[in-house]
Design a protein that fits this description.
By secondary structure, this protein is α/β, with parallel strands linked by helices. Helices cover about 45% and strands about 15% of the residues. It folds into 2 domains: about 300 residues, HUPs (Rossmann fold, 3-Layer(aba) Sandwich), CATH 3.40.50; about 180 residues, Isoleucyl-tRNA Synthetase, Domain 1 (Orthogonal Bundle). The chain has a 6-stranded parallel sheet, with helices on both faces. It binds 5'-O-[(L-methionyl)-sulphamoyl]adenosine (MSP). Is required not only for elongation of protein synthesis but also for the initiation of all mRNA translation through initiator tRNA(fMet) aminoacylation.
Protein backbone atom coordinates (compact mmCIF):
# COMPACT_ATOMS: atom_id res chain seq x y z
CA UNK A 1 0.00 0.00 0.00
CA UNK A 2 2.67 2.47 1.18
CA UNK A 3 4.68 1.70 -1.96
CA UNK A 4 1.87 2.66 -4.27
CA UNK A 5 1.50 6.16 -2.89
CA UNK A 6 3.10 9.10 -4.64
CA UNK A 7 6.37 9.90 -2.95
CA UNK A 8 7.67 13.28 -1.91
CA UNK A 9 11.19 13.72 -0.52
CA UNK A 10 12.20 17.06 0.94
CA UNK A 11 15.39 18.22 2.65
CA UNK A 12 16.52 20.98 4.96
CA UNK A 13 20.21 21.87 4.82
CA UNK A 14 22.43 19.72 7.01
CA UNK A 15 23.39 22.20 9.69
CA UNK A 16 26.90 22.94 10.86
CA UNK A 17 27.63 21.82 14.39
CA UNK A 18 30.12 24.52 15.33
CA UNK A 19 27.47 26.15 17.47
CA UNK A 20 23.99 25.60 18.90
CA UNK A 21 21.11 26.04 16.44
CA UNK A 22 20.05 29.58 15.60
CA UNK A 23 16.77 30.95 14.38
CA UNK A 24 17.87 30.71 10.73
CA UNK A 25 18.11 26.92 10.99
CA UNK A 26 14.78 26.79 12.78
CA UNK A 27 13.20 28.88 10.03
CA UNK A 28 14.21 26.55 7.19
CA UNK A 29 13.19 23.53 9.20
CA UNK A 30 9.72 24.78 10.13
CA UNK A 31 9.03 25.65 6.50
CA UNK A 32 10.18 22.20 5.39
CA UNK A 33 8.06 20.55 8.06
CA UNK A 34 4.99 22.52 7.00
CA UNK A 35 5.40 21.36 3.40
CA UNK A 36 6.02 17.79 4.48
CA UNK A 37 2.86 17.85 6.58
CA UNK A 38 0.88 19.34 3.73
CA UNK A 39 2.08 16.62 1.37
CA UNK A 40 1.19 13.97 3.93
CA UNK A 41 -2.29 15.45 4.24
CA UNK A 42 -2.63 15.12 0.51
CA UNK A 43 -1.97 11.41 0.92
CA UNK A 44 1.64 11.23 -0.32
CA UNK A 45 4.34 9.06 1.21
CA UNK A 46 6.72 11.72 2.51
CA UNK A 47 10.35 11.66 3.57
CA UNK A 48 11.53 14.75 5.44
CA UNK A 49 15.29 14.80 5.76
CA UNK A 50 17.25 16.99 8.10
CA UNK A 51 20.55 16.51 9.87
CA UNK A 52 23.98 17.86 10.58
CA UNK A 53 27.11 18.65 8.58
CA UNK A 54 29.90 17.60 10.87
CA UNK A 55 33.26 17.63 9.07
CA UNK A 56 35.65 20.37 8.05
CA UNK A 57 37.93 22.96 9.47
CA UNK A 58 35.26 25.03 11.15
CA UNK A 59 34.19 22.12 13.37
CA UNK A 60 37.75 20.96 13.98
CA UNK A 61 38.77 24.44 15.13
CA UNK A 62 35.76 24.87 17.37
CA UNK A 63 36.54 21.56 19.08
CA UNK A 64 40.20 22.53 19.50
CA UNK A 65 39.23 25.85 21.05
CA UNK A 66 37.00 24.05 23.52
CA UNK A 67 39.58 21.37 24.21
CA UNK A 68 37.25 18.52 23.27
CA UNK A 69 37.32 15.98 20.46
CA UNK A 70 35.57 16.95 17.23
CA UNK A 71 33.29 13.94 17.58
CA UNK A 72 32.07 14.96 21.01
CA UNK A 73 31.49 18.50 19.73
CA UNK A 74 29.39 16.97 16.94
CA UNK A 75 27.47 14.67 19.26
CA UNK A 76 26.58 17.48 21.64
CA UNK A 77 25.40 19.90 19.00
CA UNK A 78 23.58 17.26 16.94
CA UNK A 79 21.63 16.43 20.11
CA UNK A 80 20.73 20.09 20.60
CA UNK A 81 19.35 20.24 17.06
CA UNK A 82 17.30 17.18 17.73
CA UNK A 83 15.88 18.61 20.93
CA UNK A 84 15.04 21.89 19.19
CA UNK A 85 13.16 19.95 16.51
CA UNK A 86 11.12 18.22 19.21
CA UNK A 87 10.21 21.59 20.72
CA UNK A 88 9.32 23.02 17.34
CA UNK A 89 7.17 19.99 16.55
CA UNK A 90 9.18 18.91 13.53
CA UNK A 91 8.20 15.49 12.21
CA UNK A 92 11.38 14.54 10.42
CA UNK A 93 11.81 11.07 9.01
CA UNK A 94 15.62 11.03 8.76
CA UNK A 95 18.35 12.79 10.67
CA UNK A 96 21.46 12.51 8.53
CA UNK A 97 24.82 12.91 10.25
CA UNK A 98 27.85 13.15 8.03
CA UNK A 99 30.08 11.39 10.56
CA UNK A 100 27.98 8.21 10.30
CA UNK A 101 29.91 5.19 9.00
CA UNK A 102 27.34 4.48 6.28
CA UNK A 103 27.75 8.03 5.00
CA UNK A 104 31.47 7.47 4.51
CA UNK A 105 30.69 4.42 2.38
CA UNK A 106 28.33 6.46 0.19
CA UNK A 107 30.82 9.32 -0.21
CA UNK A 108 33.61 6.93 -1.19
CA UNK A 109 31.49 5.15 -3.76
CA UNK A 110 30.34 8.44 -5.22
CA UNK A 111 33.90 9.83 -5.33
CA UNK A 112 35.02 6.71 -7.14
CA UNK A 113 32.31 7.13 -9.78
CA UNK A 114 33.33 10.72 -10.44
CA UNK A 115 36.99 9.66 -10.48
CA UNK A 116 36.28 6.84 -12.94
CA UNK A 117 34.50 9.34 -15.14
CA UNK A 118 37.76 11.31 -15.36
CA UNK A 119 36.37 14.39 -13.60
CA UNK A 120 38.94 14.70 -10.80
CA UNK A 121 42.51 15.95 -11.13
CA UNK A 122 45.32 17.18 -8.88
CA UNK A 123 46.50 20.81 -9.08
CA UNK A 124 47.77 23.71 -6.99
CA UNK A 125 45.08 25.82 -5.32
CA UNK A 126 45.77 29.35 -4.25
CA UNK A 127 43.12 31.64 -2.87
CA UNK A 128 41.30 33.30 0.01
CA UNK A 129 39.32 30.91 2.17
CA UNK A 130 36.52 31.75 4.61
CA UNK A 131 36.44 29.02 7.23
CA UNK A 132 32.96 30.07 8.39
CA UNK A 133 31.56 29.59 4.88
CA UNK A 134 33.98 26.72 4.18
CA UNK A 135 34.44 28.32 0.79
CA UNK A 136 37.10 30.03 -1.32
CA UNK A 137 36.28 33.67 -2.06
CA UNK A 138 37.28 35.88 -4.93
CA UNK A 139 39.53 38.72 -3.77
CA UNK A 140 37.15 41.24 -5.32
CA UNK A 141 34.31 39.96 -3.12
CA UNK A 142 36.14 40.48 0.17
CA UNK A 143 35.19 43.53 2.21
CA UNK A 144 37.06 45.86 4.61
CA UNK A 145 40.45 44.78 3.44
CA UNK A 146 40.16 41.02 3.48
CA UNK A 147 37.00 40.09 5.41
CA UNK A 148 34.30 37.68 4.24
CA UNK A 149 31.21 39.53 2.92
CA UNK A 150 28.91 37.16 4.85
CA UNK A 151 30.97 36.81 8.03
CA UNK A 152 32.20 40.35 8.25
CA UNK A 153 34.09 39.67 11.48
CA UNK A 154 36.06 36.78 9.93
CA UNK A 155 39.19 37.46 7.94
CA UNK A 156 39.62 35.25 4.90
CA UNK A 157 42.76 33.09 5.10
CA UNK A 158 45.35 32.65 2.35
CA UNK A 159 45.75 29.09 1.08
CA UNK A 160 48.35 27.72 -1.28
CA UNK A 161 48.21 23.93 -1.40
CA UNK A 162 47.81 20.93 -3.61
CA UNK A 163 44.15 19.92 -3.94
CA UNK A 164 42.06 17.61 -6.01
CA UNK A 165 39.74 19.49 -8.33
CA UNK A 166 36.34 18.64 -9.73
CA UNK A 167 35.83 19.50 -13.44
CA UNK A 168 32.85 21.77 -12.98
CA UNK A 169 33.64 23.62 -16.21
CA UNK A 170 32.93 20.44 -18.16
CA UNK A 171 29.28 20.66 -17.07
CA UNK A 172 28.61 24.23 -18.18
CA UNK A 173 26.42 23.27 -21.14
CA UNK A 174 24.60 20.47 -19.35
CA UNK A 175 23.75 22.79 -16.49
CA UNK A 176 22.49 25.45 -18.88
CA UNK A 177 20.28 22.83 -20.49
CA UNK A 178 19.00 21.78 -17.08
CA UNK A 179 18.01 25.35 -16.15
CA UNK A 180 16.39 25.80 -19.54
CA UNK A 181 14.40 22.57 -19.67
CA UNK A 182 13.48 22.38 -16.00
CA UNK A 183 12.39 25.97 -15.68
CA UNK A 184 11.33 25.78 -12.06
CA UNK A 185 14.46 23.93 -10.92
CA UNK A 186 15.58 27.05 -9.04
CA UNK A 187 12.98 28.98 -7.09
CA UNK A 188 12.02 31.74 -6.59
CA UNK A 189 12.53 33.42 -9.95
CA UNK A 190 14.93 36.07 -8.65
CA UNK A 191 17.28 33.40 -7.35
CA UNK A 192 17.13 31.58 -10.65
CA UNK A 193 18.31 34.74 -12.36
CA UNK A 194 21.20 35.06 -9.90
CA UNK A 195 22.33 31.54 -10.73
CA UNK A 196 21.95 32.01 -14.47
CA UNK A 197 24.10 35.14 -14.30
CA UNK A 198 26.74 33.34 -12.31
CA UNK A 199 26.84 30.40 -14.70
CA UNK A 200 26.93 32.65 -17.75
CA UNK A 201 30.20 34.15 -16.53
CA UNK A 202 31.78 30.74 -17.09
CA UNK A 203 32.20 27.96 -14.54
CA UNK A 204 35.53 27.21 -12.94
CA UNK A 205 36.64 23.88 -11.54
CA UNK A 206 36.58 23.79 -7.75
CA UNK A 207 38.79 22.04 -5.27
CA UNK A 208 37.28 19.07 -3.49
CA UNK A 209 40.02 18.00 -1.12
CA UNK A 210 42.09 19.49 1.66
CA UNK A 211 45.54 18.64 2.99
CA UNK A 212 46.50 19.23 6.64
CA UNK A 213 42.95 18.64 7.76
CA UNK A 214 42.18 15.38 9.52
CA UNK A 215 38.54 15.98 10.34
CA UNK A 216 37.04 14.67 7.16
CA UNK A 217 36.62 11.60 4.99
CA UNK A 218 39.92 10.47 3.43
CA UNK A 219 40.15 10.64 -0.36
CA UNK A 220 39.96 6.96 -1.37
CA UNK A 221 42.71 7.28 -3.96
CA UNK A 222 45.04 9.42 -1.80
CA UNK A 223 44.45 9.35 1.97
CA UNK A 224 46.80 12.29 2.65
CA UNK A 225 43.84 14.36 1.53
CA UNK A 226 40.42 14.63 3.10
CA UNK A 227 37.32 15.32 1.05
CA UNK A 228 36.12 18.93 1.01
CA UNK A 229 33.30 19.36 3.50
CA UNK A 230 30.74 20.56 0.95
CA UNK A 231 31.38 17.62 -1.42
CA UNK A 232 30.82 15.31 1.55
CA UNK A 233 27.84 17.21 3.03
CA UNK A 234 25.70 17.33 -0.10
CA UNK A 235 25.92 13.56 -0.26
CA UNK A 236 24.40 13.46 3.22
CA UNK A 237 21.08 13.87 1.42
CA UNK A 238 21.69 10.61 -0.43
CA UNK A 239 22.81 8.69 2.65
CA UNK A 240 19.60 9.79 4.36
CA UNK A 241 17.54 7.93 1.77
CA UNK A 242 18.80 4.55 2.98
CA UNK A 243 16.47 2.51 5.12
CA UNK A 244 18.10 1.56 8.43
CA UNK A 245 18.60 -2.05 7.39
CA UNK A 246 20.00 -1.22 3.91
CA UNK A 247 23.56 -1.88 2.81
CA UNK A 248 25.12 1.56 2.30
CA UNK A 249 25.37 1.60 -1.49
CA UNK A 250 24.32 4.24 -3.98
CA UNK A 251 22.06 1.76 -5.70
CA UNK A 252 20.13 1.07 -2.51
CA UNK A 253 20.00 4.72 -1.51
CA UNK A 254 18.63 5.87 -4.84
CA UNK A 255 16.08 3.11 -5.23
CA UNK A 256 12.93 4.58 -3.72
CA UNK A 257 13.02 8.31 -3.07
CA UNK A 258 15.33 9.66 -5.72
CA UNK A 259 15.18 12.22 -7.29
CA UNK A 260 14.58 14.44 -4.29
CA UNK A 261 11.57 16.67 -4.89
CA UNK A 262 12.71 19.73 -3.01
CA UNK A 263 15.88 21.04 -1.42
CA UNK A 264 14.83 23.90 0.83
CA UNK A 265 17.79 26.13 1.70
CA UNK A 266 18.78 29.70 2.53
CA UNK A 267 19.89 31.98 -0.27
CA UNK A 268 23.53 31.97 0.91
CA UNK A 269 24.03 28.34 -0.08
CA UNK A 270 22.23 28.43 -3.39
CA UNK A 271 25.32 28.06 -5.55
CA UNK A 272 26.28 24.81 -3.88
CA UNK A 273 22.84 23.34 -4.43
CA UNK A 274 21.94 24.74 -7.82
CA UNK A 275 25.34 24.56 -9.55
CA UNK A 276 27.88 22.31 -7.83
CA UNK A 277 25.44 19.63 -6.70
CA UNK A 278 23.71 18.94 -10.04
CA UNK A 279 27.09 18.90 -11.77
CA UNK A 280 28.45 16.38 -9.28
CA UNK A 281 25.40 14.21 -9.83
CA UNK A 282 25.67 14.41 -13.60
CA UNK A 283 29.27 13.33 -13.33
CA UNK A 284 28.28 10.31 -11.26
CA UNK A 285 25.56 9.40 -13.75
CA UNK A 286 22.73 10.25 -11.35
CA UNK A 287 19.66 12.28 -12.28
CA UNK A 288 19.28 15.76 -10.77
CA UNK A 289 16.82 16.84 -8.07
CA UNK A 290 13.51 18.39 -9.03
CA UNK A 291 13.66 21.72 -7.25
CA UNK A 292 15.87 23.95 -5.14
CA UNK A 293 14.18 26.78 -3.26
CA UNK A 294 16.35 29.51 -1.71
CA UNK A 295 14.57 31.40 1.05
CA UNK A 296 15.46 34.83 2.39
CA UNK A 297 17.30 35.91 5.52
CA UNK A 298 15.85 36.89 8.86
CA UNK A 299 16.65 40.13 10.58
CA UNK A 300 15.78 41.20 14.13
CA UNK A 301 14.09 44.52 14.73
CA UNK A 302 15.26 45.51 11.27
CA UNK A 303 18.95 44.68 11.93
CA UNK A 304 21.09 41.91 10.51
CA UNK A 305 21.37 39.23 13.20
CA UNK A 306 24.79 38.25 14.43
CA UNK A 307 26.81 37.35 17.47
CA UNK A 308 29.02 40.40 17.01
CA UNK A 309 25.91 42.61 16.98
CA UNK A 310 24.69 40.90 20.16
CA UNK A 311 21.20 40.57 18.69
CA UNK A 312 20.78 36.91 17.91
CA UNK A 313 17.38 35.42 18.59
CA UNK A 314 17.54 32.19 20.55
CA UNK A 315 14.96 29.78 19.13
CA UNK A 316 14.79 27.82 22.40
CA UNK A 317 13.96 30.95 24.43
CA UNK A 318 11.39 31.97 21.84
CA UNK A 319 9.72 28.56 21.93
CA UNK A 320 9.78 28.41 25.72
CA UNK A 321 8.03 31.75 25.86
CA UNK A 322 5.40 31.28 23.17
CA UNK A 323 5.18 27.64 22.08
CA UNK A 324 5.62 25.89 18.75
CA UNK A 325 2.41 26.86 16.97
CA UNK A 326 2.91 30.57 17.66
CA UNK A 327 6.49 30.53 16.42
CA UNK A 328 5.65 28.53 13.31
CA UNK A 329 2.66 30.71 12.51
CA UNK A 330 4.54 33.98 12.94
CA UNK A 331 7.44 33.15 10.66
CA UNK A 332 5.41 31.38 8.00
CA UNK A 333 2.53 33.86 7.92
CA UNK A 334 4.52 37.05 8.38
CA UNK A 335 7.32 36.49 5.88
CA UNK A 336 7.03 35.52 2.27
CA UNK A 337 9.41 32.59 2.03
CA UNK A 338 11.56 33.91 -0.81
CA UNK A 339 11.95 37.36 0.76
CA UNK A 340 14.01 38.56 3.70
CA UNK A 341 11.91 39.05 6.82
CA UNK A 342 12.01 40.53 10.25
CA UNK A 343 11.36 39.33 13.79
CA UNK A 344 9.96 41.90 16.15
CA UNK A 345 8.43 40.78 19.40
CA UNK A 346 5.67 43.43 19.47
CA UNK A 347 4.63 42.47 16.00
CA UNK A 348 4.84 38.80 16.96
CA UNK A 349 2.40 39.23 19.83
CA UNK A 350 0.05 41.39 17.74
CA UNK A 351 -0.13 38.96 14.82
CA UNK A 352 -0.77 35.96 17.03
CA UNK A 353 -3.35 37.66 19.19
CA UNK A 354 -5.19 39.05 16.26
CA UNK A 355 -5.27 35.99 13.98
CA UNK A 356 -5.23 33.01 16.31
CA UNK A 357 -6.46 34.20 19.71
CA UNK A 358 -9.16 36.66 18.64
CA UNK A 359 -10.26 35.83 15.14
CA UNK A 360 -10.03 32.05 15.21
CA UNK A 361 -9.94 31.06 18.90
CA UNK A 362 -12.71 33.34 20.15
CA UNK A 363 -14.88 32.51 17.17
CA UNK A 364 -14.70 28.80 17.96
CA UNK A 365 -15.32 29.41 21.62
CA UNK A 366 -18.42 31.53 21.24
CA UNK A 367 -19.84 29.37 18.45
CA UNK A 368 -19.40 26.18 20.43
CA UNK A 369 -21.12 27.76 23.41
CA UNK A 370 -24.06 28.65 21.21
CA UNK A 371 -24.16 25.18 19.72
CA UNK A 372 -24.20 23.86 23.24
CA UNK A 373 -27.21 26.01 24.14
CA UNK A 374 -29.16 26.01 20.92
CA UNK A 375 -28.32 22.62 19.38
CA UNK A 376 -27.88 20.33 22.34
CA UNK A 377 -24.10 20.39 22.00
CA UNK A 378 -24.20 18.70 18.62
CA UNK A 379 -23.43 19.98 15.19
CA UNK A 380 -26.68 21.19 13.58
CA UNK A 381 -28.71 18.59 11.75
CA UNK A 382 -27.54 19.74 8.36
CA UNK A 383 -25.19 18.73 5.58
CA UNK A 384 -23.02 21.16 3.68
CA UNK A 385 -24.99 20.64 0.49
CA UNK A 386 -28.15 21.91 2.22
CA UNK A 387 -26.57 25.30 2.84
CA UNK A 388 -27.55 27.67 0.00
CA UNK A 389 -24.81 28.50 -2.48
CA UNK A 390 -25.13 32.21 -1.76
CA UNK A 391 -24.22 31.75 1.90
CA UNK A 392 -21.17 34.07 2.12
CA UNK A 393 -19.06 31.56 4.03
CA UNK A 394 -19.91 28.72 1.69
CA UNK A 395 -18.98 30.95 -1.21
CA UNK A 396 -15.50 31.56 0.18
CA UNK A 397 -15.19 28.05 1.61
CA UNK A 398 -15.95 26.22 -1.63
CA UNK A 399 -12.88 27.69 -3.30
CA UNK A 400 -10.61 27.83 -0.32
CA UNK A 401 -8.89 24.45 -0.57
CA UNK A 402 -7.91 24.99 -4.17
CA UNK A 403 -6.48 28.41 -3.43
CA UNK A 404 -4.61 27.22 -0.36
CA UNK A 405 -3.27 24.18 -2.20
CA UNK A 406 -1.84 26.42 -4.90
CA UNK A 407 -0.25 28.60 -2.23
CA UNK A 408 1.30 25.63 -0.37
CA UNK A 409 2.61 24.16 -3.60
CA UNK A 410 4.32 27.49 -4.36
CA UNK A 411 5.68 27.42 -0.77
CA UNK A 412 3.82 30.64 -0.25
CA UNK A 413 2.77 30.01 3.34
CA UNK A 414 1.91 33.59 3.96
CA UNK A 415 -0.61 33.54 1.13
CA UNK A 416 -2.05 30.27 2.46
CA UNK A 417 -2.51 31.83 5.92
CA UNK A 418 -4.07 34.99 4.55
CA UNK A 419 -6.56 33.02 2.47
CA UNK A 420 -7.56 30.98 5.52
CA UNK A 421 -7.82 33.95 7.85
CA UNK A 422 -10.00 35.67 5.25
CA UNK A 423 -12.60 32.94 5.80
CA UNK A 424 -12.21 33.33 9.56
CA UNK A 425 -12.69 37.11 9.57
CA UNK A 426 -15.71 36.72 7.33
CA UNK A 427 -17.12 34.18 9.75
CA UNK A 428 -16.78 36.74 12.53
CA UNK A 429 -18.60 39.32 10.44
CA UNK A 430 -21.29 36.83 9.58
CA UNK A 431 -21.97 35.86 13.18
CA UNK A 432 -22.30 39.51 14.16
CA UNK A 433 -24.60 40.27 11.25
CA UNK A 434 -26.77 37.22 11.74
CA UNK A 435 -26.85 37.44 15.55
CA UNK A 436 -27.94 33.84 16.13
CA UNK A 437 -28.72 34.67 19.79
CA UNK A 438 -31.51 36.97 18.67
CA UNK A 439 -32.70 34.55 15.95
CA UNK A 440 -32.97 32.00 18.74
CA UNK A 441 -35.02 34.33 20.88
CA UNK A 442 -37.34 34.83 17.92
CA UNK A 443 -37.72 31.07 17.69
CA UNK A 444 -36.04 30.83 14.28
CA UNK A 445 -34.36 27.50 14.99
CA UNK A 446 -33.73 26.57 11.33
CA UNK A 447 -31.93 29.85 10.74
CA UNK A 448 -29.92 29.50 13.91
CA UNK A 449 -28.78 26.08 12.76
CA UNK A 450 -27.81 27.29 9.32
CA UNK A 451 -25.72 30.10 10.76
CA UNK A 452 -24.01 27.87 13.32
CA UNK A 453 -23.38 25.11 10.83
CA UNK A 454 -21.72 27.48 8.37
CA UNK A 455 -19.50 28.92 11.05
CA UNK A 456 -18.50 25.64 12.65
CA UNK A 457 -17.78 24.23 9.22
CA UNK A 458 -15.68 27.25 8.27
CA UNK A 459 -13.69 26.88 11.48
CA UNK A 460 -13.18 23.17 10.74
CA UNK A 461 -11.93 23.80 7.24
CA UNK A 462 -9.64 26.59 8.45
CA UNK A 463 -8.18 24.30 11.10
CA UNK A 464 -7.66 21.54 8.56
CA UNK A 465 -5.88 23.81 6.10
CA UNK A 466 -3.79 25.44 8.82
CA UNK A 467 -2.73 22.10 10.28
CA UNK A 468 0.61 21.94 8.43
CA UNK A 469 1.52 25.22 10.15
CA UNK A 470 -0.25 25.00 13.52
CA UNK A 471 -0.73 21.26 14.12
CA UNK A 472 -1.45 21.54 17.87
CA UNK A 473 -4.05 24.24 17.48
CA UNK A 474 -5.72 22.45 14.58
CA UNK A 475 -5.86 19.19 16.53
CA UNK A 476 -7.51 20.91 19.48
CA UNK A 477 -10.06 22.55 17.21
CA UNK A 478 -10.80 19.25 15.53
CA UNK A 479 -11.24 17.56 18.86
CA UNK A 480 -13.63 20.26 20.11
CA UNK A 481 -15.59 19.77 16.91
CA UNK A 482 -15.94 16.12 17.84
CA UNK A 483 -13.35 14.48 15.56
CA UNK A 484 -10.89 11.86 16.77
CA UNK A 485 -8.04 13.23 14.75
CA UNK A 486 -4.64 14.37 15.90
CA UNK A 487 -2.68 16.14 13.19
CA UNK A 488 0.53 15.20 14.98
CA UNK A 489 -0.20 11.50 14.56
CA UNK A 490 -0.34 10.67 10.88
CA UNK A 491 -1.41 7.18 11.91
CA UNK A 492 -4.59 8.69 13.39
CA UNK A 493 -5.51 10.04 9.94
CA UNK A 494 -6.43 6.79 8.36
CA UNK A 495 -9.13 5.62 8.11
CA UNK A 496 -10.47 8.68 9.92
CA UNK A 497 -9.40 11.18 7.36
CA UNK A 498 -10.58 11.05 3.84
CA UNK A 499 -8.57 13.88 2.36
CA UNK A 500 -10.97 14.76 -0.38
CA UNK A 501 -13.80 14.97 2.10
CA UNK A 502 -11.98 17.02 4.72
CA UNK A 503 -10.62 19.55 2.31
CA UNK A 504 -14.09 20.37 0.99
CA UNK A 505 -16.32 22.94 2.65
CA UNK A 506 -19.45 21.22 3.90
CA UNK A 507 -18.08 18.00 5.32
CA UNK A 508 -18.91 18.54 9.01
CA UNK A 509 -21.29 15.65 9.70
CA UNK A 510 -24.78 16.40 11.05
CA UNK A 511 -25.50 15.76 14.73
CA UNK A 512 -21.84 15.14 15.60
CA UNK A 513 -21.40 15.38 19.38
CA UNK A 514 -19.24 18.41 20.10
CA UNK A 515 -16.50 18.67 22.69
CA UNK A 516 -16.23 21.04 25.59
CA UNK A 517 -15.53 24.66 24.64
CA UNK A 518 -12.10 25.56 25.98
CA UNK A 519 -9.82 28.36 24.78
CA UNK A 520 -7.59 26.88 22.07
CA UNK A 521 -5.13 29.74 21.87
CA UNK A 522 -4.49 31.92 24.90
CA UNK A 523 -3.80 35.60 24.30
CA UNK A 524 -0.08 36.32 24.42
CA UNK A 525 1.29 38.98 26.72
CA UNK A 526 4.40 40.95 25.90
CA UNK A 527 6.61 40.68 28.99
CA UNK A 528 7.48 44.10 30.38
CA UNK A 529 11.04 43.01 31.01
CA UNK A 530 13.59 40.94 29.14
CA UNK A 531 12.45 41.28 25.53
CA UNK A 532 13.89 38.57 23.32
N1 LIG B 1 26.32 23.06 6.46
C1 LIG B 1 25.84 23.94 5.46
C2 LIG B 1 24.75 23.29 4.66
C3 LIG B 1 25.10 22.01 4.00
S1 LIG B 1 23.76 21.31 3.16
C4 LIG B 1 24.35 19.92 2.48
C5 LIG B 1 25.34 25.22 6.09
N2 LIG B 1 24.96 25.15 7.36
S2 LIG B 1 24.52 26.40 8.26
O1 LIG B 1 24.21 25.83 9.53
O2 LIG B 1 25.50 27.42 8.24
O3 LIG B 1 23.28 27.05 7.62
C6 LIG B 1 22.11 26.41 7.50
C7 LIG B 1 21.00 27.26 6.98
O4 LIG B 1 20.68 28.34 7.86
C8 LIG B 1 21.25 27.85 5.62
O5 LIG B 1 20.15 27.52 4.78
C9 LIG B 1 21.26 29.34 5.87
O6 LIG B 1 20.74 30.04 4.80
C10 LIG B 1 20.34 29.45 7.07
N3 LIG B 1 20.55 30.71 7.76
C11 LIG B 1 21.65 31.13 8.44
N4 LIG B 1 21.41 32.39 8.92
C12 LIG B 1 20.16 32.79 8.56
C13 LIG B 1 19.34 33.88 8.82
N5 LIG B 1 19.74 34.93 9.53
N6 LIG B 1 18.08 33.85 8.33
C14 LIG B 1 17.58 32.77 7.65
N7 LIG B 1 18.32 31.72 7.40
C15 LIG B 1 19.65 31.76 7.72
O7 LIG B 1 25.29 26.23 5.42
Amino acid sequence: MENQKKTFAITTPLYYVNDVPHIGSAYTTMAADAIARFKRLEGNAVLLITGTDEHGQKIQRTAEEKGISPQSQCDKVAASFDSLWQKLNIQYDRFSRTTAARHEAIVKEFFQRVWDNGDIYLAQKQGWYCVSCEEFKEKRDLVNDGYCPIHTNKKAEWRDEENYFFCLSKYQTQLEILYETQEDFIQPRSRRNEVLNFVQQGLQDFSISRVNLDWGIPVPTDPKHTIYVWFDALLGYVTALLDPEDEPTLEKALARWWPIDLHLIGKDILRFHAVYWPAMLLSAGISTPKKVFGHGFLTKDGQKMGKSMGNTLDPVALLDRYGADAVRYYFLREIELGQDGDFNENRFVDVLNSDLANDLGNLLNRTLKMANKYCNNQSPNLKGEQIPAENPLKEIGMELSDRVTVAYNKLNFSEACKEIIHLVTNSNKYIDQQAPWSLYKQGKQAEVEEVLYSILESIRLSAYLLSPITPDLSSQIYQQLGFKIDFNQPSSFEPNINFDVHKSWGSLPPLQPLGEAKPVFLRLELPEESPL
